[in-house]
Amino acid sequence: PASGWVTESPVVEATSSAAVLEVSVDGGDWEPYTGPVTVTGDGPHTVAFRDSLGGAAAVAFDLDGTAPTIVASVDPGADPSGWWTSPVTVSFTCDDVLSGVVTCPDPVVVDADGADQVVTGEVFDVAGNSAEASAEIDLDQTAPIASALNVDPSTVPLGGTVLVTADSVDATSGVGAAA
User: Fold this and answer.
1) What is the pTM of this model?
2) 160, 170 Cβ separation under 8 angstroms
3) What is the mean pLDDT of each run of 10 residues along the chain (179 residues)?
4) Which of 32, 72, 139, 175 has the smallest C-beta neighbourhood within 10 Å, fewest atoms?
5) E strands of the chain, at which residues?
């Protein structure tokens, strides 16, 4: 591939008209070649061939079959109920120890009220592997509304306590408690 990296274990084959053909993988001992060689394990590899007629050939490649890592983090943190009351920034941290990271997503600001807002980022490494990470945001920047105060003094004896009730609504996160 153009990146120089392969993402799956390659199968390497050779042909020769010589009576003896040998193979060496990654500088190991020369062994009789009996058929295609499958190379496994991330990192740089070399498969070399030699025959009894003096012919020799080698192929070198880098194998990265492991996806990069990505972690989503949210700043600031949510309140104890899991909701945010002001805009938040979802940032991504990416890493790839083999071929390296090509792209890591930019931070995303969530500033619109709503529940279950999912922010997803995707990272790519040089070899072409990818991974995703997500953060779910529940944002409610609007205070609840208390309306329709209800006072019924006729039900309270003289000098007693007046009960006042109100209807409270919060269209986004709901009303947790009213005082």
Assistant:
1) 0.72
2) no
3) 88 94 97 96 96 95 96 95 95 96 97 97 96 97 74 68 60 55
4) 32
5) 5-6, 11-12, 21-25, 31-32, 37-38, 43-51, 56-63, 69-75, 88-95, 101-103, 108-110, 114-125, 130-139, 145-151, 164-169
